[in-house]
Design goal:
13% strand; disordered N terminus; single chain; two-stranded antiparallel sheet; 328 residues
Length: 328
Amino acid sequence: MDRRDFLKKATATTVVTSMASKLSHAAGAPVPHRTLGRTSEKVSIVGLGGHHIGRKPDEQEGIRIVRTALDNGVNFLDNCWDYNDGVSEVRMGKALRDGYRQKAFLMTKIDGQTKKAATDQLNESLRRLQTDHIDLLQFHEVIRDTDPARIFAAGGSMEALLDAKKQGKIRYIGFTGHKSPDIHYKMLETAFAHGFTFDAVQMPLNVMDAQFNSFEKKVLPVLVKHGIGVLGMKPMGDGIILQSKTASPTECLHYAMNLPTSVVITGCESVEILQQALDAARSFKPMSSQEVAGLLAKTSSASTKGEFEKYKTTNTFDGTVHNPQWLG
C-alpha cells in the first residue's frame, strides 16, 4: 500500500469512527428519570405501554421492544391483566427473563372489584409476568360512578390488594381511568375517607384533554398536593389525536412531559416507534408558557367536543363495559 492509499484509508477510518462515536453518544444519551410521587422510586420520564406489544402476531417483536426499551434506560413498564387476552403480559414476562426483571419498575392492572376476582387476577398476572412481585398494581378502568364504593366496600378489591401488599406480592397501589375527571376525584375522596392515599394515579394527559373535560385541570392539582405519582397516558390518544393534524408525536409527548408527570406512558408497536419516544424523552426541555400557549392554540378547535378523545365520549375503549364479568 502506497502512502496515498494509506492516507485515504486512514482518513476514511477516522470519519467512520467519528460518525460511529457520535451515533453511539446520541443513542446512549440518558433518558431522564423522575421521582414517583412521595415514594423514593426513580422512574423514566417515558414509560412503555403494554397493550401495543401484544397487538401484532409477532411475539419476538414484542419481546424485542421491551428489551430495547430497558436497554435504553426506560424502566417503567405498563401492562394489564386483560390486555389482548393476556398475551401482553405473557410476552412481557418472557422479555423479563435473563436478568431484565431487575432493570424494570413493573406495573400492571386488574379489573376485579371483588376480593376474589382481584386476588385471582393478580395471581394470574404474576404467573404470566414470571415474577414474584409487582412494583405497582392498579385498579383498572375506574370509569363508573359506582366503582369507588364497590372497590372500597367490605369484600371489595381493596382488601385483596392490601393483603397482597402484606404478603410482598405488590409494593405500591394505584388506579387508572380514562372516562371522567369527576370519577377520578370521587375515587380519591373515597380513599381519603377510608384513611388511604394512593401511591400513583393514571389518567389521560394530552393537548386535547387540557381543553375538554380536563383531567389536567380537575385531578392533577389534587395529585400534586398529596404527593401522589402522576402517570400520564394517551399522550396521542392511541394515535387518534394525530389524525387531527394539529400536533406532531413529539409535540404530544413533550406537552405531557412538561406537566408534573412522574412518567408519560406511550404505546409502541415497533422498535421504530419506540425510538421516536426515546428521542422525545432525550430531547425534552421544559416548555415556556408561550410554547404551551402556542400548542394549545393549534389544537384548540379540534378539542372542543372530544372528537379526538373517544375514550371519554364513547365506550369504544371500555373493556369492562364489553366484558362486565371481569369485574367479578
